[in-house]
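Translate sequence into C-alpha cells.
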Amino acid sequence: MAQVFRNHDSRERVRVRLRGLPPEGRYVVEFVEAGTTLRADGRSLVEEGVEVPLAKPFTTEVLHVR
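Result follows.
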C-alpha cells in the first residue's frame, strides 16, 4: 500500500517506483480514489514504476498492491 500526495506542485502526474517486489511476481495495483486498476509484473513496478494522476493541488491517491 502507498499513499501519494500532491501539494502546490504543478505536476499533474507523479511516477512512483515500488520497492521489494519479487521481479517474477504478478500484481494488481488498485488506484483507490480513481477507482481504476492495472496489472503489472514486479520488475516493471520496481524499475519503471507507475504513474499516479493527481489532477489538483492538495489531493491524494492511495495505491493498494496485491
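Note: The chain has a mean pLDDT of 95.
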